[in-house]
Design goal:
This protein has about 70 residues and is mainly beta. It contains one helix and five strands; from the N terminus they run βαββββ.
């Protein structure tokens, strides 16, 4: 996941966080707060679930933010 900010310095620094995530999904997915990379903590088991939805928030150093759903 990638977000950009045209500001310079601290206000242009974007950090990522998971806003809405189920307990099960939190044991499967990990979000890197600095890069926005979403990685698997373990293999997916399609018998447990065939789809997941995560809500990711990108926030800049000035406090502005936006969210996106990742499915």
């Amino acid at each position: 996941l990638t977000a950009t900010d045209a500001d310079e310095g601290l206000n242009g620094d974007v950090k990522y966080s998971l806003k809405k995530i189920t307990e099960k999904a939190s044991q499967i997915f990990q979000l890197d707060a600095g890069t926005g990379a979403i990685t698997l903590l373990r293999s997916l088991d399609f018998e447990e679930g065939d789809s997941y939805e995560l809500e990711v928030q990108a926030r800049d150093g000035g406090g502005l933010f936006d969210t996106a759903k990742v499915a």
